[in-house]
Each structure stands twice: as C-alpha cells, then as structure tokens.
Amino acid sequence: MTNQIARDNLGHLFWERKALKDMSNAEWEALCDGCGKCCLNKLEDEDTGKIDLTRVACRLLDDDTCRCAQYEIRHQFVPDCIVLRPDTLHEHAYWMPATCAYRLVWEGRPLYDWHPLISGSEDSVHRAGVSVRGMTVSEFDVADDDWEDHIIEEPV
Fold first, then answer.
1. Using one digit for the tens of pLDDT, what is the confidence trace for 20-37?
2. For residue 105, with 0-12 CB atoms within 10 Å meaning exposed, 13-18 middle and 19 or more buried, which class applies?
3. End-to-end alpha-carbon separation of the chain, Å?
4. Which of 40, 23, 7, 71 is nearest to 150 (CA)?
5. What's the confidence (pLDDT) of residue 93?
C-alpha cells in the first residue's frame, strides 16, 4: 500500500514459510500487490452481508499507480482508513478483495502468478488486468447516495 515497496532482500517465498504475525514490516508491506481494490469504497447488503465494490475510490488513491498518495500520513486526511495488521486481519478479511495477497495467505492459498513477489515486476498486476488502474472516480465527485450506480465486478 505504500508508493514504492522494497521487495529486494526478503527471504525466498517468505510468505509460505512465515506466519503473518511473524513477518517483518518490510515483508508485510511487500505482500501488497498494488491493485488498489482495498481503497475502493464498498457497499454491504445488510440482509445478506454481500460486499460490492464500487469504482468510487478513496480521495487519496492515485488512479494511475493504484497506491495511496499519502500512505504514511493518510490518517490525517482519512481518519477511518483501516490499518491492516496480522492481528486485525480476521476482522477485515470478509471485505478484502478475493485476489488480495493478505487474504490469500491468511486463507492458506498461493499467490497469483501476476503478484509482484512472483513475477518480479511491480507492473504485472496492471498488465494482468487485476488492478483498478484507470477505472476509478473520486469520492469527491460522487454523492454517497449514488455509489450504487458505480458497483463493479471485481477485476480478477
């Protein structure tokens, strides 16, 4: 979720060998694939619990990089931005994108071939069509009551 993630000098397949709670901060951050889907506003059906993604993005999402433009100080602008950590993942996994590496590792599933840790390229998530690059609108431009008009299928 940072703008630049250092993936060098991390242990080979560390996510397969370490529990999430035992990962260093660098390893934890490297799990982020940079798809930007976690920064999309979501709608939850109160009756079914179903989560729908909208293309309405957090005001801090950079639509080109699919990264937070103010990651380190995001709470100054978005106080309720969730800080995802190993000890809170169980609370948030239900709304996280199905392709999210944090969710995949938490569920004991492998990362996709397009994940930068596998492909070696930061751009592979975009080339695979999994990111939200170029498809978002700012939450400043859409009234809350109109978010339903912007529901999208998760890019997978």
1. 999 999 999 999 999 999
2. buried
3. 19
4. 40
5. 87
Residue with tokens 């944090």: 102
The burial class, CB within 10 Å (0-12 / 13-18 / 19+), for 36 is buried
Phi, psi (rounded to 5 degrees) for 30: -65, -20
The Cα 82–Cα 34 span in angstroms is: 16
Q: What is the pLDDT of residues 33-86, one digit of tens each?
A: 999 999 999 999 999 989 999 999 999 999 999 999 999 999 999 999 988 899
Torsion angle defined by CA atoms of residues 11, 114, 96 and 40, in that order, rounded to the nearest 10 degrees? 120
Q: Please say whether the beta carbons of 42 and 52 come within 8 A.
A: yes
Task: For residue 3, give both structure tokens.
Answer: 């703008």
Residue 140, judged by CB atoms within 10 A of its CB (0-12, 13-18, 19+), counts as exposed
